[in-house]
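User: Teach me something about this protein's shape.
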Amino acid sequence: MQPAGKKATGSVPPSDPWFIREERFDAAGLAVQESLFALAGGYLGTRGTFEEPVAPDIKSIEGTYLNGVYFREPIHYDEGAFGFATHNNKMVLVPNGKAINLSACGESFVHGTSEATDFSRSLDLRSGRLSRTTRWKLTGGRSFDIRTERLVSLTRRGLMAITYSVTSFDYDGAVTLTSTLDAAYGGTDRAGDPRAGQLSITDCLTPMDSGTDTDGSFFLHRIKDSDTLVATAACHMVEGADATITPAATPHVEGQRFDLHLAPGQTVTLTKFVQYDHGPLAEAEALDTRTRNALAAAARDGFDKLAVEQEAELATFWADAGIEINGAPDLAEALRFNMFHLYQSAGRNGMSSIAAKGLTGHGYDGHYFWDSEIYVVPFFTATRPAIARAMLEYRYRHLDQARARARTMAHKRGALFPWRTIGGEECSSYFPAGTAQYHINAAIAYATIQYIEVTGDMDFAAGMGAELLIETARLWLEAGHFSAHDGGRFCIHEVTGPDEYSAMADNNFYTNAMARHHLEGAVRIMGRLAKDAPDAYATLADRLSFASEELGEWSEAAAKMNLPYDMKLGIHAQDDTFLNRPVWDFDGTPADKYPLLLNFHPLTIYRHQVLKQADVVLAMVLLSDRFTMEEKRRNLAYYEPITTHDSTLSTCIYAVANAELGNRDAAYKLFMETCRMDLDNLHGNTHYGVHAACMAGSWMGVANGFAGLRFERGTPAFRPGLPSDWQDYRFALRARGCGLAVSVATAGTTYELTDGESLTLRHYGKDHTIMAGQPLTLPNA
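Assistant: First, the predicted structure itself:
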């Protein structure tokens, strides 16, 4: 196993677990803080960079993004082959609307150069506002207090608002505030790490129009090699002083300069509203009108109203999804922080999903992966089902491209979704760890089946859901076969499972187990549709040339699925040959050689028994009812010591597996690492952006781990336990249209409906119906 390395530092309880605080300016860790303090609204996201400039010798990564908006660039191969991905999608950088420069007496405030004291920054998880205070001391000794507040609206698409207040402590004289839209900020490169993004604003946007007048500033850009436009507009309000306003434009920068006078004790506040939007080239005029109207409405309503809207929106989210832990404030802080980022980063309009880094950075070029459906969609299914549905709708919108990809891969029927993408095409240039991961189809099906059965949303099932399930299920009969050599078992060859330290294997256990779940679930959902919505079933069957015989084929493939098992060890083998390889020399691998993917050739890694992340163990967690407890114990005992956790997707799964088996100390340690992965920068790469799926994994640790939650055909089933360090814990979820509060304490677990009339749940294997106004307490056994 990988040496422990940096440990989760959550030993100092935060003063208020609803706030993420930074009490000093940390130049060395600035890029990490910029990821942590990023704000988003599902569509617009912007990193937590300062309004003012930063000294050039300090690493700062600027970035503002629009979810689902990307540009295409060709992928170049010196040695290509048929079917290789041809283009990459990259999440575009858009103009930075945060920039505000403060100057007085010929000096400008620059972080890391100017003399500054009393620095403090905090993110309020209840209000969604990022606040900062700083005292700036001029060379002559006079000083100003600077206070900023920032929000990215969760209710008004593409809107950001900032208040920038300057109070003179003992200065009497001229002050200048220059507020700009910056379309010239620098990009980043991969720096030898394939997980990092490589992006520059000039790579992806071509200026079409721009300007500044007394009303504000604007940019209109065209995404290169596309017919998509991006509009950016800003306006301002000044309170507390009379200001002379003049344009402040330089190449690729538009803005306004505010010249004013401050006396000791006087405060001036500049409020800045920035609106972003995008649309087709053919609708440029409508885009411009829509952007300007939205900006004007925000300015009329003012920052205070936007703040009230934001807090109200978050209050409803926390009511549906809140977690409280009595006895571990550091973990309560981390869990809320993680859930906040999930909520603000997820697409809501059916046109986008959630990137691996959310909207906090351009790591992985802003791509969507399988972890959206395995980690994040289940979180939203249980907390905000409308977002889960929107994320699945995104996949449905790209179903035709998945069908086309399947044909490219010589499959006559079905659909194969891309391993990494934004716009629906395969963007992985390394097929052994990309296209070969056919389990992406099973991930989408897993999330679809769970969403339908937990929510009971049969309208979705009868339309998008059924079509997704049919087309993705068809692919398994194309990719696999009934092997006469293997006793007629259904085999799937040359695929890569979640453990990317093995590739191109025959009968990867996770892939096959999830394919079985996929096929069985598709048969179940289609049978329910045939019974409950026969007209919709018939219409869909006709449109897709779907015959009931296919259901029989799917059932046979599921029943005969090859699930490798080693009789001698009594474990499920990761694939047909995994156990034949030598175990990796962990004792001989120095700590600085992790992660292995950055220090060893892939073939070196592939030849050994070593895991990047959970594979068989992930199947155990997702498909818990398909394993006996003894099988789970043996599998975990074998695979955990050879797992490096080089992926942030891993510790949460091992935490849940250990919790189920009663290994409370091991579960708690892994859970703590999961929770504080980004707050403590445990993998040393949070500067690229946070790890969205790992954040969802922290919720899994509480719900699926300590509370033992599984959805059994849509019924919430619990086996709650209480970590020894906690007095009690509470969390909320939704199922079958009802809100459910779950409180776990030493004396037992209490279930109470927060809305809805009745809900049947399962507690330690026994069914109970919870009625409105009648909480039920049951023993933890």
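Now, about its shape. Residues 37-290 form a domain with the Beta-galactosidase; Chain A, domain 5 fold (CATH 2.70.98.40). The CA atoms of residues 325 and 664 lie 16 Å apart. If you'd like, I can walk through any region in more detail.
User: That's plenty for now, thanks!
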